[in-house]
Q: What sequence folds into this?
């Protein structure tokens, strides 16, 4: 069996990291060829790419909205559906993110952009057949769709995609070694201070402001590390506002933004963190960063988004909080700090169940089932 593993190829990208980790384990089970796909292609280039892919037995596509389109990037999505229609071998699609529906925006001031969004865009995306197509109905061409949380599975079923087509696989957890950590503390000037850390590309929805507010309830020796950089220049304005908030709060010595860290520096940082945080204000999909966090074997505290609530309910691998209760969050962080790095009991169970080795085995079984049904 030969699988063509198709992924957007870009450094510093979670989807690329996911695909490479999956390939590494699948290589022990079958022949996997990575097909590197740029963000956009001409139709002629797409057909040439399909000719290459059709020489395999299974096409496994890593779908991400930024690369292959969504309601926001409809032109790119049109090219992606053209691409799917010209693949003649069975298709597996891992949907790393989906749009569940657009929220209405509050209109506290007259804005033509907001009026257009609320009166036209939201109804089209949320309640029309074309909107259902944009939110995921286009994936129905696949023989199997892999999602990373139950909410995405229910969404696809609500779009009239056969439930038998949809498989829930959580992102794999790597086996990482704890390195010598001294250099990380020295570089950051941390000495013996206690660290609460969040990491990943900086985005407005990741709730940094919440933890900055919480810092006034935490002991002076606690430092909040924001380990991440900008993925693109569009976030420059937000970064400036975040730095201004840190400064106006008088927390320059207790909140540090590291910039982008590769794995050689990120893993040592996670391993010495007293608590790892995911204070996201909203998230409709899973978090590949969570796989690194749980691999680091540190206490993890998250907001109550769908994915983290699901992990809490099924495995008791994290502790979750209500995003707007600063004092309660501070209490939970203090409790974790006092546990001296003791992670929740279910974390080890999650690591074992969803190791990359087990994820690869489950993925391999999906391939075999598809080919057996086809035969």
A:
């Amino acid at each position: 069996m030969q699988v063509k593993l198709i992924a957007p190829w870009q450094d510093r990208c979670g989807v690329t990291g996911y695909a490479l980790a999956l390939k590494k384990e699948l290589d022990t089970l079958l022949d996997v060829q990575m097909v590197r796909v740029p963000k956009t292609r001409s139709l002629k280039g797409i057909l040439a790419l399909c000719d290459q892919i059709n020489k395999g037995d299974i096409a496994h596509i890593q779908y991400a909205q930024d690369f292959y389109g969504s309601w926001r990037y409809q032109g790119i999505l049109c090219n992606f559906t053209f691409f799917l229609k010209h693949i003649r071998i069975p298709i597996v699609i891992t949907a790393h993110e989906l749009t569940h529906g657009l929220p209405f925006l509050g209109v506290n001031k007259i804005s033509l952009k907001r009026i257009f969004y609320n009166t036209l865009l939201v109804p089209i995306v949320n309640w029309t057949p074309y909107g259902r197509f944009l939110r995921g109905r286009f994936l129905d061409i696949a023989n199997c769709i892999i999602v990373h949380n139950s909410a995405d599975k229910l969404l696809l079923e609500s779009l009239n995609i056969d439930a038998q087509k949809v498989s829930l696989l959580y992102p794999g957890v790597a086996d990482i070694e704890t390195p010598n950590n001294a250099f990380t503390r020295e570089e950051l000037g941390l000495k013996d201070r206690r660290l609460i850390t969040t990491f990943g590309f900086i985005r407005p929805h990741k709730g940094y402001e919440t933890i900055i507010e919480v810092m006034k309830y935490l002991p002076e020796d606690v430092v909040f590390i924001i380990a991440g950089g900008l993925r693109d220049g569009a976030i420059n304005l937000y970064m400036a506002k975040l730095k201004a908030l840190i400064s106006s709060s008088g927390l320059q010595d207790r909140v540090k933004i590291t910039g982008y860290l590769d794995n050689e520096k990120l893993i040592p940082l996670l391993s010495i963190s007293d608590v790892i945080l995911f204070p996201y204000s909203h998230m409709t999909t899973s978090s590949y960063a969570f796989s690194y966090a749980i691999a680091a074997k540190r206490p993890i505290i998250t907001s109550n988004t769908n994915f983290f609530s699901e992990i809490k309910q099924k495995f008791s691998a994290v502790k979750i909080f209500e995003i707007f209760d600063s004092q309660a969050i501070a209490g939970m962080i203090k409790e974790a700090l006092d546990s001296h790095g003791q992670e929740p009991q279910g974390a080890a169970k999650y690591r074992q169940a969803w190791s990359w080795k087990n994820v690869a085995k489950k993925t391999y079984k999906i391939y075999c089932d598809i080919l057996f049904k086809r035969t």
The mean pLDDT is 90. The longest strand covers residues 2-8. The two ends are 13 Å apart (CA to CA). The first helix runs from residue 14 to 26.
